[in-house]
Automatic annotation (TrEMBL):
Organism: Hevea brasiliensis (Para rubber tree)
GO molecular function terms listed in the Swiss-Prot or TrEMBL record: mRNA binding
Phylogenetic classification of the source organism: Eukaryota, Viridiplantae, Streptophyta, Embryophyta, Tracheophyta
UniProt xrefs under Pfam families: E_motif (PF20431), PPR (PF01535), PPR_2 (PF13041)
Taxonomy, superkingdom: Eukaryota
UniProt-recorded name of the protein: Pentatricopeptide repeat-containing protein
Length: 338
């Protein structure tokens, strides 16, 4: 039998990768007497396809150390690994997202934006700011996406003054035009901080027409701070631009329930019924032993529903026994029949 050449070795790595046999692929890769860029790409791609993005980045780093020049296929695989920063963050595993980011040998604007957005999502404002400053120290110039993540991080961490500072610097220092996403972040930031009048002034000074995201952010702030009168004014604005948006009605209904105005809440629900506006129920998914289950509020479709509701009843009884109390106003609003 003739000796295997680099093409044969690489074909075996690719074949193992195709069938998800990552360990065997790596064994063959390590045994290769000679490797070319295609061989490296095959193994990196194998790791990425198997969800082992940290291993993929380690191998990419090793490839660079050996002065093997990457090509478009290499970079495409590494870009897929970058996207996993976002995936880990949205799945609640910020530590894994940071691990992936820290192992990246060559960080570009996309990877910096991904980690700043991940930190923002988890309310880690100070850490997001540190990464923003470190990014610039490494010679990476921010773009409009960077500032969306940065302002969102300030909002979720209550850093009002810091958010104002970076919002102003966007145009004065970085020459980036404020877009509606940046205004939405600022309205949310000011609203959460109770600065509703300042938020209104910012909206009035916008160069573009405010959309439902802008008004929705302010309406959410009205709910937090119990400002019903401003909420009613915002409702009028929203109904003119989004008359059939169920989210608008639900936000106002929740605002009324938050301050105990039950009749007004019922009137909003009646108005929804009159206009035949239906709030679509959100669907959640969970994977258990390789099978994905989907469920929603008061869902009785699953075969295990009776067991689930039985456990919920037990939990409710337990909470009562330890004198646990929660704010039921919004729960009443959310679970009401539309």
């Amino acid at each position: 039998m003739p000796d295997k050449n680099v093409v044969s070795w690489t074909s075996m790595v690719s074949a193992y990768a195709k069938h998800g046999l990552v360990e065997l692929a790596r064994q063959n890769f390590d045994q290769m007497p000679v490797k070319n860029v295609i061989s490296w790409n095959a193994m990196i791609s194998c790791y990425v396809q198997g969800g082992q993005c940290r291993e993929a980045l380690d191998l990419f780093h090793e490839m660079n150390n050996l002065r093997v020049k990457p090509d478009e296929a290499t970079l495409l695989s590494i870009l897929s690994a970058c996207s996993q920063i976002d995936m880990f963050a949205k799945c609640g595993t910020l530590k894994f997202a940071l691990d992936v980011f820290n192992k990246m040998p060559n960080k570009n604007l996309v990877s910096w934006n991904a980690i700043i957005g991940a930190l923002a999502l988890h309310g880690c404002g100070p850490e997001a700011i540190k990464h923003f400053e470190k990014m610039q120290a490494e010679g990476i110039w921010p773009d409009e996406i960077t500032f969306t993540g940065l302002l969102s991080a300030c909002s979720h961490s209550g850093l009002v003054d810091t958010g104002r500072h970076y919002f102003d610097k966007m145009s004065s220092v970085y020459g980036i035009v404020h877009e509606i996403e940046h205004y939405a972040c600022m309205v949310d930031l000011l609203g959460r901080g109770g600065l509703l009048d300042e938020a209104i002034s910012l909206i009035r000074g916008m160069p573009m027409k405010p959309d439902i995201v802008i008004w929705g952010a302010l309406l959410g702030a009205c709910r937090i701070h119990g400002n019903v009168e401003m909420g009613k004014q915002i409702l009028k604005q929203l109904l003119e631009s989004e008359p059939y948006s169920s989210g608008v009605y639900v936000l106002v209904s929740n605002l009324y329930s938050e301050v105990g105005r039950w009749q007004d809440m019922k009137n909003i629900r009646k108005l929804m019924n009159y206009h035949e506006i239906i709030k679509c129920r959100a669907i959640s998914s969970v994977e258990v032993e390789g099978y994905v289950y989907e469920f929603m509020v008061d869902d009785k479709r699953l075969e295990v529903s009776s067991n689930v509701f039985s456990i919920l009843d037990q939990l409710t009884d337990h909470m009562k026994s330890i004198a646990y109390f929660c704010n039921i106003s919004s729960l009443c609003s959310e679970t009401s029949e539309v």
